[in-house]
Amino acid sequence: MKTAIRTGAISAFTALALAATAAMAGTVRPPEGAQMVPTGKGFAIRADDDAVEQLDAVQSAAAAGQIIFHGGPVMTNATGVNVYVIWYGNWSGNTGTTIVPDFLNNLGGSPYFAINTTYYDSANVFIPNKVTLKGQVNDSYSQGTSLSDTKVRTIVSSKISSGVLPKDRNGVYFVLTSKDVNETSGFCTQYCGWHTHATMSSTDIKYSFVGDAARCINSCAAQSTSPNGNAGVDGMISVIAHELEEAATDPDLNAWYFSTGNENADQCAWTFGTQYTTGNGSKANMNLGGRDFLIQQNWIRAASGKCALHL
Fold this sequence. Notes:
The structure is a single chain. This protein has one domain. It is about 25% helix and about 25% strand. The chain is built from seven helices and 18 strands.
């Protein structure tokens, strides 16, 4: 789903609930007991009538309050999840082009990403604790500074069809936009990032949008002074983590999610667990590759599931 915006100095769980309410504004409240499914758009919708009976059977068999497997594909390839970054807009001189790769290059094998190894597919194969940054490319405003969801998809598909990036069914393609770029379906007002999938070049491609949190620092970053001296990008990194773990466990929006429609990272959005103070006075909760980061917690799939930073 989309990473909901931060909603002020209130409890993280209250913030998540309020953000979900805002995202649902203008929609009809579903009947009590209605089956809900994720959309990748930061809110859940009522399931189609044809799917309700199947969802009833799946969810009635699951423990209350636990994340549920709905049978869709999961990113369990033995080589792990491959990541491709499209630096969209103007990133010249921005330290983010170093900070983000440092994070991604040290995420695989970490105690944090190990949380995703508690999730499995229909063959009972579990997600490996492996993430590989496979490629990065620049895109200087090929779709302008005002992006729709369709334009984000076009950015990804054009990079694949032109051969600039490979076609990789085990990949997640991130469109990371500079501060001057807007995503008109709700960036900074309803979400900070999102993930989805589409058929491109006859392949199921997983991709994500994450905008520079500097565009709306109070909505999409947890702090205005950050561990790596770039509050916008440090804010983005928590959103990147959010979307990547959801893409791994629920790539086609039909695998792992709660009966509310929340995916694993949605359940823990804007919660950070135990923190420490860095040299510049900012907060962090993990160190990867020598850098401090403040990253949201993720949901451990277990009988006593919970939000955490590690198993």
